[in-house]
Amino acid sequence: MTNSTVATNPSASNAAAATDPRAGKYLAFHLGPEEFGIPVLAVREIMGLQDITAVPQTPPHVRGVINLRGKVIPVVDLRLKFGMESVEYGQRTSIIVVKVGEVMMGVIVDGVSEVLNLFSSDIENTPDFGHGIQTPYILGMAKTKGKVRMLLDIEQILSTQDLQGLGGFLQ
Known about the structure:
Elements: H1 2-7, H2 10-18, E1 24-31, E2 34-39, E3 43-48, E4 62-68, E5 71-77, H3 78-81, E6 94-100, E7 103-109, E8 111-118, E9 123-124, E10 138-144, E11 147-152, H4 154-157
Parallel strand pairs: 2-11, 5-7
Antiparallel strand pairs: 1-2, 1-8, 3-6, 4-5, 6-7, 9-10, 10-11
């Protein structure tokens, strides 16, 4: 009897249906004054800035490649990718290594702040910015600690287009 009561409990099934797939743990970082978050499950490593080997004929936001324990990893400056002005790298500048599809990539950010545990109630849908403005890379907006952080779909941001011209380095 207990099993059938649990299985047919309407409040239990409503709670499951109301669970937002975007809820979970996010790594929070900033680019200038703006705060962002990416799913922790996509993050493989966080490291300080290191020597980056430039690769000719790549877009300006593709800074080059690094050697990560014997593996060549492309590195993208997220500020430049987002069309923000370039700044001099500082002591808090970090490289977040993420897995995009089957490829490991590094993203340069101004600083990493914390890991957030976000619930459905903390996340709102991306607002409509008007006709012609597409934001497929934004999963939603998180409201935590009096701030609004953009939750990013890192796979949408770091597409295979970023890897064009690096094919010979990624073998």
